[in-house]
Amino acid sequence: MGKKKAPSTTLGRSLIKERTRIQRGPRGKDSWLHTSELNDGYDWGRLNLQSVTEQSSIDDFLATAELAGTEFIAEKLNIKFVPAEARTGLLTSEETKRIQKLHEDNEQFLCIPRRPYWDENTSADVLKQSERETFLEWRRQLAKLEEEKKLILTPFERNLDFWRQLWRVIERSDIVVQIVDARNPLLFRCQDLERYVKEISQHKENIILINKADLLTPEQRQSWAEFFQTEGVKVVFWSALAEGQRLAADLKDEQLQDEEQSTDEESTDDECNEEEDNDISSENSPTSENEGLSDTSDEFEDCEEEEEDDDDEGWQTCSEEAEDERVAPDHTSEKTQDIVICNHSHLVQKDELLEIFKAMHTGQRMKKEQITVGLVGYPNVGKSSTINTIIGNKKVSVSATPGHTKHFQTLFVEPGLCLCDCPGLVMPSFVSSKAEMICCSILPIDQMRDHIPPISLISFTSQL
Q1: Cβ atoms of residues 193 and 422 within 8 Å
Q2: 174-215: pLDDT as tens digits
Q3: Residues 173, 175, 180, 184: is their CA dihedral positive or negative?
Q4: So what's the pLDDT on residue 219?
Q5: DSSP letters spanning 87-128
Q6: Which residues pair with 367 in a beta bridge?
């Protein structure tokens, strides 16, 4: 009998091999089985296309030129080697003289826009259209001045609504006050504004209020006072921050004195009550009735004399205070008259500044029995701080952001004196370089690309 054969396992091995073959994939690369990428379409990726919805001005220009078939060829002509010293940003003496001469020759073109003529018969639409045309022509003149004369102008206000606010403030004001920064008064002063005020009416007065003057030394203030005196301009030195701190300290001292006075009065009342109690007890004593009567009569006489003395002293002090109050304005008015006639380096206080406003305008007023003072200046020079210091409490919001005030507003300091606050306006002026604009806080420091020219200018100026 032979050996039995093992059962056949061919079917199981075939299934295992088939499963392994499927997991490994097909052997032939050209097989059509399990194929997902046919590559039978156009390959857009090879062009490296990118959707463009927005372009900068230079990119738009280059794209337009490419579409038009324009070619640009770099030509190396008029080569100029710039030395390393030129990166300091300082101008040579010859360049400084040349730029100063250009500024003097073209000073008459550096003007502010004028409001076109209008009367009660002019409609609002006609006036607005005329204002737009005048403003557009003014901007064209400044652009032409920059291109032809190769001059550098400071950034100026390009919003017509702000200039309309200035026109209204000048028209309704009797005195136009230019508030300038004491660290560079000439940069923030606009001479054409002074001419425009006189063009509207000869009865209007101009005055320059140099704010932050506490940062200057007395010698520097005296030099500026003499300079503006030769220019024939009335100038007053003022510090809104220092005056506000002084007024706050005085108010605090007055409150402390009132509290001390109230405590003293309470203590004297307690003493008087104790004395009256002692007097009543002495009167009730049977031993010395006559003496008590005489003593009490003497005491009553003494009290009456003291009360009369107190009353006399009270009336005298009131009259003296009244006399002092009457004399003080006269004294300050004498000072203000001197300041108006001759510029002094004196740092004025609030009361003196108000007396200057009252005594300065003596001609025809815009409103009867009222003086309107218009405050004009660059943004962030201290117009709102000045108004808050004069008024005595916060009437105008203050912000470090330039252009915080959007519309002019009128505030009454006292009967007959009104302040008119104008939005901050950046007026066009000449500068020598962009480094000067950065040092004068005209250009923001966070947009500065090269820090060497401003630092070099500060170092060179501090050595003079």
Answers
A1: no
A2: 999 999 999 889 989 999 999 999 999 999 999 999 999 999
A3: positive
A4: 94
A5: GG-PPPHHHHHHHHHHHHHTGGG--PPPPPP--TT--HHHHH
A6: 370
What residues contact 33, with CB distance under 8 A and at least 6 apart? 26
pLDDT tens-digit profile of 69-97? 666 666 666 666 656 555 566 777 787 78
Q: Give me the long-range contacts of 148-153 (CB less than 8 A, separation at least 24).
A: 149/102, 149/106, 151/102, 151/103, 151/106, 151/430, 152/430, 152/431, 152/432, 152/433, 152/434, 153/110, 153/428, 153/429, 153/430, 153/431
With beta carbons less than 8 A apart as the criterion, state whether 441 and 402 touch.
no
Structure letter (DSSP) for residue 347: B
Burial label for 176, CB within 10 Å (0-12, 13-18, 19+), is buried
323/268 Cα distance (integer angstroms): 29
Question: 3-state DSSP call for residue 397?
Answer: coil
Percentage helix, strand, coil, to 5, in the chain? 55, 10, 35
Q: Provide the 10 A C-beta neighbour count for residue 373.
A: 25
* φ, ψ at 159 (rounded to 5°): -100, 120
The HSE-up count of residue 103 (CA atoms within 13 Å, CB side) is 16
Q: Report how far Cα 448 is from the mean position of its chain's Cα atoms.
A: 21
Strands 409-414 and 371-377: unpaired
Annotate 131-151 with b (16+ C-beta within 10 A) or e (fewer). beebbeebeeebeebeeeeeb
Of the candidates 217, 209, 310, which has an alpha carbon nearest to the alpha carbon of residue 268?
310
pTM: 0.61
Q: Per-domain residue ranges for the chain?
A: 88-156+428-464, 175-250+322-427
Q: What is the DSSP string of 182-206?
A: TTSHHHH--HHHHHHHHHH-TT-EE
Upper half-sphere CA count for residue 249 (Cβ side, 13 Å): 6
Q: In CATH terms, is domain 175-250+322-427 a member of 3.40.50.300?
A: yes
pLDDT in tens, 285-308: 444 444 443 444 444 444 444 444
The answer to whether 180 touches 166, Cβ cutoff 8 Å, is no
Place of tokens 């003097």: 104
